[in-house]
Write a structure and sequence with these properties.
Helices cover 58% and strands 12% of the residues. The protein is an alpha/beta fold. InterPro entries: GmhA/DiaA (IPR035461), SIS_dom (IPR001347), SIS_dom_sf (IPR046348), SIS_GmhA/DiaA_subfam (IPR050099).
Length: 198
């Protein structure tokens, strides 16, 4: 098999092309990390949700905030809504799948909290319902999606839309975005600590 015909090489090439475009998103991830440092540092919380691989990315983000990204620091309040399997299955059974995240947002979301929704399609009905519930609760609603335009972009306060041709590449760049947000978050905390020491 030639290099040109190898699907693994093609996957790497697609990722390389997409990340070159994605570099333009640095300002968004910087802003999100700094905003999260303000919200979580002030006692607020992050709620995160996604389906399938996007659920894993959402949980990765919350784990980095409750645990740590690089250096040791205090834990911060961050909840991956899909991870509460008893709630998600009960809500799906009693209210329908479209309410799985929205009902949890109504329970946990407070004015000033941040709700991050991850979706490769930007069209998942349960995430669109969650965005509506988040805005109604006074949360800032951010979306990490695949290519624009999409309904979740329209239903969020701010979105980072990844221009990539495959779901796999979108998910890979969502992980890059998660790490960039965490990097900016930690840097903002360090800067705040430095100012407090002055």
């Amino acid at each position: 098999m030639s290099v040109e015909a190898n699907p693994l090489v093609a996957h790497c090439d697609e990722l390389s092309d997409a990340i070159a475009e994605f570099r333009r998103s640095v300002a968004v991830t910087q802003r999100w990390g700094e905003r999260l440092a303000t919200v979580l540092g002030g006692g607020g919380r992050l709620l995160a949700a996604g389906n399938g691989g996007s659920a894993a990315q959402a949980q990765h983000l919350t784990a980095e905030l409750v645990g740590r990204y690089r250096a040791d620091r205090p834990p911060f309040s961050a909840l991956a809504l899909h991870a509460d399997t008893s709630s998600t299955t009960a809500i799906a059974n009693d209210y329908g799948v479209d309410e799985v995240f929205a009902r949890q947002v109504r329970a946990h979301g407070r004015p000033g909290d941040v709700l991050v929704l991850l979706s490769t399609s930007g069209a998942s009905a349960n995430l669109l319902s969650a965005a509506d519930a988040g805005r109604a609760a006074g949360c800032e609603v951010w979306a990490l999606t695949g290519p624009a335009p999409n309904p979740l972009l329209a239903g969020s306060d701010e979105a980072l839309c990844v221009a990539a041709g495959s779901t796999a590449t979108v998910q890979e760049l969502h992980l890059v975005a998660v790490h960039m947000v965490c990097e900016a978050f930690d840097a903002a905390l360090d800067n705040a600590d430095g100012r407090a020491d002055d």
